[in-house]
Write a structure and sequence with these properties.
alpha+beta; four-stranded antiparallel beta sheet; Aminopeptidase; 5 helices; about 180 residues
Length: about 180
């Protein structure tokens, strides 16, 4: 799938190395409990491959159309952790620092939402992030997603008492997306 500036494609075995570098970057992983080591990154890669097989969607490798450079991760996940709103389709992104602040997360996530509403029966899609991650919350707002404070939660995959455990939930319905969708 392509947007004005991005190519979103499936992951290939040789991509594991670049993904491991991205996942090990402490700035990129600021709103995760810790950067991932190679084994953890490979496990994430394998999980995403299974999501594609099981659900028909997942997180794509986002790269520049101009030269194929890795921008990051953008796409859809199937959230199954314990929360009042799960299981649910989730849109998400993780970009290399050099690509922050250029609207690429919004561009790619908008295309991912379109894909999600066109190919799944989901009536809504959520985005979640640490309550401290204001940058991602701004992307969610630009996507037309609404914060749903009643769904905010303590993420069960973050250690209890960790400063990043409180998470916020944004949601967009199929109808709202089609009424307000951004160009891709």
């Amino acid at each position: 799938m392509t947007t004005a500036r991005l190519r979103l494609r499936g992951w290939r075995e040789p991509d594991r190395d670049e993904l491991a570098v991205l996942n090990a970057d402490p700035v990129v992983m600021e709103y995760f409990p810790e950067p991932l080591d190679r084994a953890q990154s490979d496990a994430v890669f394998d999980k995403w491959q299974r999501n594609w097989s099981e659900h028909g969607y997942g997180f794509w490798r986002a790269e520049t159309r101009a030269d194929g450079q890795l921008v990051g991760i953008i796409g859809l996940g199937y959230a199954t952790f314990e929360a009042s709103f799960t299981p649910v389709v989730e849109v998400g992104w993780r970009l290399a620092v050099d690509y922050w602040g250029h609207g690429l997360a919004t561009e790619g996530a908008s295309a991912s939402l379109r894909f999600g509403f066109d190919t799944t029966d989901a009536e809504s899609i959520v985005a979640i992030t640490s309550a401290m991650n204001v940058r991602s919350q701004r992307v969610m707002q630009r996507l037309g997603m609404d914060h749903e404070p009643a769904l905010d939660f303590e993420h069960p995959n973050v250690p209890a008492g960790h400063r990043l455990q409180p998470h916020v939930v944004y949601r967009i319905s199929r109808t709202a997306f089609h009424q307000n969708c951004l160009p891709t």
